[in-house]
Write a structure and sequence with these properties.
Elements: E1 10-13, E2 16-23, E3 30-34, H1 38-48, H2 63-66, H3 88-96, E4 105-106, H4 116-119, E5 126-130, H5 132-143, E6 149-151, H6 153-162, E7 172-176, E8 191-195, H7 202-207, H8 213-225, E9 236-240, E10 253-256
Parallel strand pairs: 6-8
Antiparallel strand pairs: 1-2, 2-3, 4-5, 5-7, 8-9, 9-10
């Protein structure tokens, strides 16, 4: 377990200094304040930060290992893994097929902490920022009857938060606080590209907003039998929902293997 921290404790990360401002309602949930200018803090995190690492990956990971090819600021706690399927050649191929691509900045949250009490609280609040151009592209696509495909569970969460309570995605900064699951009505996302998640996790429950539990469990079971890998450096799947049914039986689940090799 990590060492217990107290208000006033100072933490060092390379040249960066941070002080514990508050202990929240769990000993492992704290509020930090870094010293220095914002640009200095971003540079320090990018150079000296270490991502969350799960035991099945033996070698130490750097921040660079967890950045997607189209990433910008290092704001994620762990890799926004669905984004690893994208590279510039794929984006060019999509554009040639008249598929529009737009970006948001989002802090991909963790899917497991190793602490049952903390895991029951997941997902934690996740900040995001949607540029005006992205909000306009999404709203125009929906108005024209097009489909919006979210790359990852955190993107779904951000878009749905930005479209509540109306049906229009707002630009600007926000904080996704809601939980998505079987009883959620999706306002924006028609499909999701995601890794495969374990039943009982918050990420798995979010996928149930697209498909019913039986169908999702069948898909995960089939992928496991076929040797597909789960978690953040694993394989990916795309799940489409039917626009005329909350729990669609008519859908496609498409698996992609080896995209992260």
């Amino acid at each position: 377990m990590p060492p217990r921290l107290y208000v006033g404790d100072q933490l060092l990360l390379g040249p960066l200094r941070a002080r514990v401002q508050r202990i929240l309602d769990h000993p492992r949930l704290i509020e930090l304040r870094f010293e220095g200018a914002a640009d200095q803090i971003w540079r320090g995190l990018a150079r000296h930060g270490r991502p969350i690492q799960y035991a099945y990956v033996a070698r130490p990971l750097s921040i660079g290992d967890t950045w997607t090819r189209v990433a910008s600021r290092p704001v994620a706690f762990e890799p926004p893994s669905a984004g690893f399927i994208l590279d510039w050649s794929m984006l060019r191929a999509l554009r040639e097929r008249r598929v529009r691509f737009a970006t948001i900045t989002h802090a991909a949250g963790i899917s497991s902490t190793g602490d049952a009490e903390l895991d029951a609280r997941l997902p934690l609040d996740e900040p995001y920022e949607i540029p005006p151009s992205t909000a306009s592209a999404i709203n125009a696509t929906r108005d024209a009857g097009g489909r919006v495909i979210a790359i990852g569970t955190t993107v779904v969460r951000a878009l749905e938060d930005a479209a509540a309570p109306s049906e229009t995605v707002r630009s600007g900064a926000g904080l996704a606080t809601g939980r998505l699951g079987p009883d959620s009505r999706l306002r924006v996302a028609d499909a999701i590209v995601s890794g495969m998640h374990e039943p009982g996790t918050s990420h798995y429950r979010l996928l149930q907003a697209f498909v019913d539990e039986d169908l999702l469990a069948d898909a995960i079971r089939e992928a496991d039998t076929a040797g597909y890998a789960a978690h953040e450096f694993g394989d990916s799947m795309m799940v489409w929902r039917s626009p005329d049914s909350h729990f669609p039986r008519k859908l496609r689940v498409v698996f992609e293997k080896g995209l992260l090799a």
